Amino acid sequence: MVNEITDADFKTEVLDEKKVVFVDFWAPWCGPCRMMAPVVEKVSEKYPSVKFCKIDTQENMIKASELSVTGIPCIIVFKDGKEVDRLVGFRSEDDFEKSVKKYAK
């Protein structure tokens, strides 16, 4: 399951978590973002130990700006509240799942 989050709850949902969190920065007008959404959703169902969130950069610009997100889709991986990886651009399901496997326990 992928949780929709906002700038306001980013700290609670991502930075305060004691597990791995994949955050999908996206926008409704972005074609590759819309293609990436079902991939993230499908992979999220296979890895319950990992938290998956998405944040609409059109509605929530603060975190995207603070984290220097310049291209979307951009999936930032956080572990214990710290950025550990960044995936920019569309990824196939296999490619994305390989990235998730690196962090899943």
CATH topology term: Glutaredoxin
Q: What can be said about the biggest beta sheet?
A: 5 strands, mixed
User: How many structural domains does the protein architecture include?
Assistant: 1
Q: Using the CA coordinates, give the radius of gyration.
A: 12 Å
- Strand content is 25-35%
Corresponding CATH superfamily:
Glutaredoxin
CATH architecture, please? 3-Layer(aba) Sandwich
What does this entry look like structurally?
This protein is an alpha/beta fold and 105 residues long. It has one domain (2-87): Glutaredoxin, CATH 3.40.30.10. The chain contains four helices and five strands, in the order E-H-E-H-E-H-E-E-H. Helix 2 (31-46) links the parallel strand 2 (20-26) and strand 3 (51-56). Helix 2 crosses helix 4. The longest helix has 16 residues, at 31-46. The model has no long low-confidence stretch (mean pLDDT 96).
Which key terms come to mind for this protein?
Glutaredoxin; 4 helices; five-stranded mixed β-sheet; 37% helix; 105 residues; globular
